[in-house]
Design goal:
Arc Repressor Mutant, subunit A; mainly alpha; 2 domains; two-stranded antiparallel ribbon; 2 strands; 2% strand
Length: 174
Amino acid sequence: MGATKPADGETEAFLRRMSDAYREPLIRFFRRRTGGAAEAEDLTQEVFLRLLRRPDGEAIDNPEAFLFRTAVNLLRDRARRAGAFAAHAAELAERQDRVEGLSPERVLEGRQSLAAAMRILEELDERVRDAFILHRLEGLKYAEIAELFGVSVSSVEKYVIKALAHLARRAGRI
């Protein structure tokens, strides 16, 4: 379904068509990954808000791909926020001596390792990086990622293997 962003007079009809076609699939997509109906609904609304906020004149060649790429980005942002919140909570708990079994050195080492891994992943092609993150962090199956990207399952497997090999090489394990 090829489409472009409509003129102002057509915006409401365009959004209604997109909502009618993709609202339920997006809610299912988010519910599988978040476990909560309310959060899935909120994230779905955010996808449509981002669609609405696109700059005028920017074409949307594949609305489904745009919507689900936006959904993936929202999940990635959510994971980053959750990570930042968890880091803040860990620091707070550490200061209050509530963290058992985690030394400050171990927490710092873990953060540094995660930051290094994320920097290494940034060196990869976007599709390879996204496939790896979707599979390893978001728990998507290869078939789900293949459907999102419009490629074969074999291609997704190769993307994930390429990312793992790159991480291992850069970490000095190969």
